Amino acid sequence: MTPEKSMEMAVTMPLRAILEEYPVCRDFFLNLRIADLDWELTLLQALETANPDVFDEFGLDKGTILRDFCRFLETFAGGTEGAGEVRSLTIVGGHGKTGESEIPELTVSVGDIISIVGPTGSGKSRLLADIECLADGDTPTGRKILIDGRTLTDDERFDRAGRMVAQLSQNMNFVMDLTVREFLEMHAVSRQSKDVEKTVSQCFECATNLAGERFTRETKVTQLSGGQSRALMIADTAYMSCSPIVLIDEIENAGIDRRRAVELLARKEKIVFLATHDPLLALSAQKRIVIKNGGISRVIETSGDERECLGTIEKLDAILYRLRHSLRDGQIIGKHIMEGIE
Amino acid sequence: MRLITVAGPPSSGKTSVILKLIEAMDVPVSEIGVVKFDCLTSFDHLRYESMGIRVETGFSGRVCPDHYFVGNIEAAVEWGLKSGFRLMVTESAGLCNRCSPYLKGILAVCVIDNLSGVNTPRKIGPMLKLADVVVVTKGDIVSQAEREVFSFNVRQVNTSAAIIFVNGITGQGATMLEKHVRNAKEIEGLRDVRLRFTTPAAVCSYCTGEMRIGEEYQMGTLKKMEFRQL
User: What is the pTM for the complete model shown?
Assistant: First the structure.
């Protein structure tokens, strides 16, 4: 929204009409400790009836409130800021820790799943950091990250960096005391979702399907098991995150259907990077980046042979999955569980 | 000399962010100075000194930290200029959510952490609202959703600042912060520079040592609560 348009709205429209169109604007008033105003009036008219002492505490007066309200409208009227659409991402190689060059270039597109493998401390996080800040030869690796085939201008970088990558790792926890429903609603509202209820339902259904153990909408997020938390985080990232790139760091032991989880993200128009030691996940990707001594030493396309191995790995994984279920179910473990091993 | 003012709630990660920022900068540590404004006790000077950075620490003690900041910032800058620094960073803890130790025309960085709760940005006043750059820390231990809602709430209060996620342990994100700091203005003193926001007002009998409870002992600027009758 242009400054002219926001000013026109703020000056001529009754507040109620503005709030109906942009419910997020109610927060503007709550942040200034204003819970009730005469919403039938325009902003300036309504402010006449409010207690000026409160504005004074915020260092504001009617004029500056009008200015701030207009900026608020301009910021949120077009939806909550995202990182914008990304069709492809290109990593232009730099160098490793001791200066040796890495692969010249790698381009990945929306819907691609790329795994990143390499020893701990080899530089997987550095690669992520380079992607996150849209490196332009100005980080220790000298890498460049191109979006849709081109280098972004500094202004574009400032604007988009930090929102490019959604991250999911084993170390992440929910720290809020909310139920699953409240949590998803909060995220949906902040994304200014048009149909909060529908978005929340989709997310919830998806999360419970991915998790091995069921949970309800009224479960507290802090009470979810590791696997349930991971499932909820993945579903939430798929349906609601603003970031076009997702980096998943070590979710192997989460006890969820991780291959399906990763494919879900890819289907949701994301570029998925997976830092993993899990053979099933590593080989599920179309390509894998091998990191050694700070640099990308190889990019391996998953071969036909590897895909064949993947079949066996999947069977093994399915057995482990059944085994977990059976144990959880109180069953006695016997040879029948092992069926499928050649 | 370039000057940047960094403020943020206690334990939000200000010192870690500043250290990672300095690592990301192309300035020798001998040409960087830090002035730490704290209240009663601080151990942060040890962390700066271990990196070879010159640091001065001041304690506001029984004085409002913002008043203490204003009263000393000019001398701090003079110290920095005399020491021949190319970059000086002031670090001050915001304690009452109303603090705003920022100066007009001087790069203002606010550091807040994801663990403080998603609604906290909406409760922090001018310290967040008037910052040029908002650095969010501890994002590596909360969910993506919480990070996004947190940013959304920062944006509600400050529609124009750059929001940068910095991991104070690994330094991830410090490169972006460095880009903003690189363009900080060169200064030769603070004459005629103004604060961005008024400091909290408190000139009352309790400021001068009164300890007794009761209306008859209260003088000066005191604000009264109103209680609703049942």
Answer: 0.89
